[in-house]
Structure formats: structure tokens, C-alpha cells
Amino acid sequence: MRARSKVALVRGDDRYGNIAQALTLIEDGVDLSDKRRVLIKPNFVSTGRQLAATHVEAVRAVLDWLRARYSGPITIGEGAAMGDTFAGY
Q1: I want to staple 44 with a disulfide (CB 3.0 to 4.6 A). Which of 10, 68, 78, 87 is the partner?
Q2: Taking 80 as the threshold, does the pLDDT of residue 73 lie above it?
Q3: Other CB atoms within 10 Å distance of the CB of residue 28
Q4: C-alpha to C-alpha distance for 34 and 76, rounded to whole angstroms
């Protein structure tokens, strides 16, 4: 039987801070020691609707959290379902 995933819920007006706090709450369950690389995969449905994509501050918080704990390569990868992917970045 697989172990249950840890989940953290945080409430507030600071998106970056909320994500950082949630990651800190679950960090004891994250083991990056044997990973050769890490992929951050945001949700990027549409380049024309901001609410249809993961906010840049959320991605930045995950990236900063990982950088402080992992020295290997980190890639952010996603393709838009609608619109020009590169225009969205």
C-alpha cells in the first residue's frame, strides 16, 4: 500500500507567501536526494485568459523553494492548450 500524500492548506492574500508556507508545511515529506532533475509543471491552458494559467508568483515560489533545497537542474515546462505558448511566457 502506498503512503498517503501530504497536503497543506494555507489561506491569505499573499500568493507567493501562501505557496511558500504550504511547501514548508509539507517539506519533511519531500525527498529530493535521489533526483537527477526536477520538473515544475504549471497549468497553462490559455495565453489569453490569466485565470486559466498558474500565476507566475506561484511558480516563482515553487522555484525558490526548490532552489534552496536542491542543487540539480530544475526545468519549468508547459505548453498552452490555446494560444501561443511563447507569448504566454
Answers
A1: 78
A2: yes
A3: 8
A4: 19
54 within a domain of the structure (yes/no): yes
Beta-bridge partner residues of 82: 46
Q: Which residue has the higher pLDDT, 18 or 1?
A: 18
Tell me which residue range forms the domain holding 33. Answer: 15-88
In this structure, are strands 38-40 and 74-76 parallel, antiparallel, or unpaired? parallel
H or E segment to which residue 39 belongs: strand 38-40
pTM: 0.83
Q: Residue 46: beta bridge partners?
A: 82
Q: How many domains does the chain have?
A: 1
